[in-house]
Write a structure and sequence with these properties.
Blueprint: H1 10-13, H2 17-35, H3 39-48, H4 69-74, E1 88-94, E2 102-107, H5 108-124, E3 132-135, H6 143-155, E4 158-160, H7 167-176, E5 181-184, H8 186-198, H9 203-206, E6 211-215, H10 221-231, E7 234-241, E8 246-252, E9 259-261, E10 266-271, E11 285-291, E12 302-308, E13 323-324, E14 329-330, E15 335-337, E16 340-342, H11 344-351, E17 357-368, E18 371-380, H12 388-406, E19 411-415, E20 430-432
Parallel strand pairs: 3-4, 3-5, 5-6, 6-7, 17-20, 18-19
Antiparallel strand pairs: 1-2, 7-8, 8-9, 9-13, 10-11, 11-12, 12-14, 15-16, 17-18
Bound molecules: adenosine-5'-diphosphate and zinc ion.
Length: about 425
């Protein structure tokens, strides 16, 4: 693929669903055949009597066992590799907070497919070879760096591999090189804006930014709108995970109403996390995902632990690939307090409605006596009145709105700008200090 026009592929992106399913069946069968070259799937499928012929229709995918993060850890590093080592050209690994990290390896063809997918995502929202694309994402093992790098190069953008951090240098690059498109995690996008302001600059007037790619961590639509207003640019949600190569799994089109998941590369199922049965479109559940165009290390029915839903109906853009709603977080992000299930994103959504509050907040759970409590610290923007009565009134309003959303009453504390701990990578929103009885 070297003709730029081909980064819009209507024959695939708007393929009738019946045909798309046929393509998926064909690729799934092939994937099973490839996967069975790995020690892990060879053993598993032999035990269960699974062969490519197990799959006749797309629904037959439910006959295949799941693959979990545990499986990746237990077979670390190369137990799921499905090809000869000589065919492998790249290894990525995702952070191993507990135990072994998970490793994914790629053949050259896997990397090409991945880059094409990202080029397709960027092209979809109007990025062209005349754009200057700055990638303020971590490089190295983190897939947001090299993933977007190769995608943007393929599209022909002038690509600035700025990597994460060093905001003053980022801003200098954005201004000196005339950056028009920028990729960063949403929490960093907010930080970067603060530094613009500290420098007496307004990104709307002082930069050429038009397109922002934000992803890799959960964020609310309110947060996105805030970022768009600050930068005077469109911000598109980008979903990916290292186990599925990285970014480029699902991406918003110009409608900004859900992310099209590229079903020529992935089969997505949304399942009830307890019964593991499919839920109807429109209902939330755990995303289980299968790669169907990878040779080095395909993963079949991988339990992502990410919670989302399929947005029912057709997208006005004409693409037929399913749209995934904003991710709520992972099953393990869910907090249970006083018997109520709460996602940090519900809290962010409320806080972002108040212009007086900044985008940085920290939820702390702790035990007093026999009770578990929640405190939410949120930084206030400088320009608001520091009259005690005004803050008191605001605090009451925010607390009430939170109570309506999460059904319990948190203690809301306003703290000074810059006082909450900053993370180098994805934002840390929850500190759980509860005593476990
Ligand atoms: P790690 O597991 O170390 O965070 P990854 O970089 O592979 O490694 O992270 C992938 C995870 O990041 C996803 O499983 C999901 O939980 C989260 N994520 C990625 N993109 C988004 C997004 N656009 N919205 C919400 N969450 C996202
Ligand atoms: Zn669309």
């Amino acid at each position: 693929m070297n003709n730029q026009e081909e980064y819009y592929q209507p024959e695939i992106e708007t393929m009738p669903r019946k045909e798309l399913e046929q393509l998926q069946v064909q690729r799934l069968k092939k994937t099973i055949e490839i996967a069975m070259q790995s020690p892990f799937y060879a053993k598993l499928y032999k035990e269960k009597g699974i062969t490519p012929n197990t799959i006749k229709t797309i629904n037959d995918i439910s006959k295949l066992p799941f693959t979990t993060k545990e499986d990746l850890r237990n077979n670390y590093p190369f137990g799921l590799v499905a090809t000869d080592m000589k065919n492998l050209v790249r290894l990525h690994s995702s952070s191993g907070t507990t135990g072994n990290p998970t490793v994914i390896v790629h053949t050259q063809k896997d990397l090409d497919n991945w880059a094409n997918r990202i080029a397709r995502c960027m092209y979809m929202v109007g990025v062209r070879n005349t754009d200057v694309f700055q990638n303020s994402s971590g490089y190295g093992m983190f897939t947001g760096g090299l993933g977007f790098q190769y995608g943007a190069e393929r599209l022909g953008c002038l690509t600035v591999p700025a990597a994460a951090g060093n905001s003053l240098r980022q801003i200098k690059f954005i201004r000196d090189f005339g950056t028009t498109a920028l990729h960063a995690i949403p929490s960093y996008m907010s930080r970067l804006y603060e530094v613009f302001v500290e420098q007496g600059l307004d990104p709307q007037k002082d930069t050429k930014l038009r397109t922002l790619f934000i992803g890799a961590e959960p964020h609310s639509d309110e947060q996105r709108k805030r970022i768009e207003e600050k930068f005077g640019a469109k911000a598109y949600n980008s979903f990916g995970m290292s186990e599925m190569s990285g970014p480029g799994v699902a991406f918003e089109c110009k409608q900004q109403n859900g992310m099209h998941v590229w079903e020529d590369s992935f089969i997505v199922e949304i399942l009830n996390p307890e019964t593991l049965q499919p839920v109807p479109d429109g209902e939330y559940g755990e995303m289980v995902i299968t790669s169907i165009d990878r040779d080095g290390m395909p993963l079949i029915r991988y339990r992502s632990r990410d919670l989302t839903r399929v947005i029912p109906g057709e997208c006005p853009c004409g693409r037929t690939h399913k749209r995934l709603d904003r991710f709520r977080g992972r099953t393990d992000d869910m907090l249970i307090l006083k018997g109520v299930n709460i996602f940090p994103m519900q809290i962010e959504k409320i806080l972002m409605n108040y212009t007086q509050l900044s985008s940085d907040f920290l939820i702390t759970l702790f035990t007093t006596g026999e009770n578990d409590e929640m405190t939410i610290e949120v930084e206030i923007n400088e320009l608001i009145s520091d009259r005690y009565e005004d803050l008191e009134k605001l605090n009451k309003a925010v607390t009430r709105a939170l109570k309506d959303e999460i059904l319990i009453t948190p203690k809301v504390k306003f703290v000074e700008k810059g006082s909450l701990p900053r993370s180098d990578g994805k934002a840390v929103r929850v500190k759980d200090l509860r005593q476990k009885f």
